[in-house]
Give the backbone structure.
Amino acid sequence: MPAAYQPETPGEDLNVLEERWHHPRLLRPRRPQRPQPKLRAGRLILWVVVGSLSLGLAAGLLVRPPGRVGHAISIRPAGQPVGPAAAGEPTRYLAAPAPAERPPASDGRVPFAVPILMYHEIAVGPNDLYVSPNDFQKQLDFLARHGYHTVTLTELLSAVQGRSTLPPRPLVISFDDGYDNAYRVAYPMLKKHGFRGVFFVFVKGVGRRGYVTWAELREMTQAGMEIEAHTWSHPDLTRLAGNPARLRVETAGARAELEGRLGVAVRCLAYPYGRYNAAVLAAVRQAGYEVAVTTAYGYVRATTDPLLWPRVRIGRSDSLASFAAKLVPRPEPKESARADRPERTPLVAASSQS
Ligand SMILES: [Zn+2]
């Protein structure tokens, strides 16, 4: 086991951590055909104990979701009133402007800026790649109570391109790597809130011990979750510049495999370790991806290159207060100062309305 990680500064260091921490998992043997009862039972008990503060969580874990869910999760109706603050909630953030508190601009473009939250493991763990189920539950409760609406990356792209509009307070909740707790923990919690998540999986990991299975991904797809690509084998793509064939497998190959196995369109990719360069961008574009997300900190604006959408990392060190603060995009100073730029006008107009 790697030693506990002590980040000096949040951000890029965690990309290095992900490489050191998670790569050994790829070397584990394939998941056996039959589940291991002892392991599963132990984990279930752990989750129940961790989640026992919340009856809802406990219920969600004890009742295994049905093998097939025949309906898509609907998005919460627009304009739903925002609930009152609960006891102990960081009220100083409640008065802050939410990303899309105001209606979207008339041309349907993103009104201000939308956060794509980035999670890895929803489990108790030693570093910021983990968020405990208990904290995750509190974060989802917070989002629901304050009228946030989850959208998929496909929906966000459609809005950015002016083909549709977004619900009030939109955000994307994304998960990298496809760990088994994505299905066992995150998915039931999201479903219970009527939220949709975006799960980036890499082909080689699916079905291995510690990761989701193809059947689980199919079930999640049918329940309205979005499954997207995180390459074939989770390499640092910038190291494949001299190997175009391998780069094609990691990008186009992963997309084709996911689409074939899941029967859904795959349009988005997450760069492993957030790394990319010109050759990687060209390969990603050539493979037909319309969106690619990085690990750079930031919010999606209508003017952001869709192959370089930044995200907002959430980790175990986040309190509910810091989580809430991260939902409020910091405006780019240039944006209001440069209203003369035609492509920025809708953003300025939307953000100055009240
Ligand atoms: Zn990853």
About this structure: Confidence is low (pLDDT under 50) at residues 1-12, 26-39, 53-110, 332-354. Residues 18, 176-177, 230, 234, 272 surround zinc ion (CB under 6 Å).
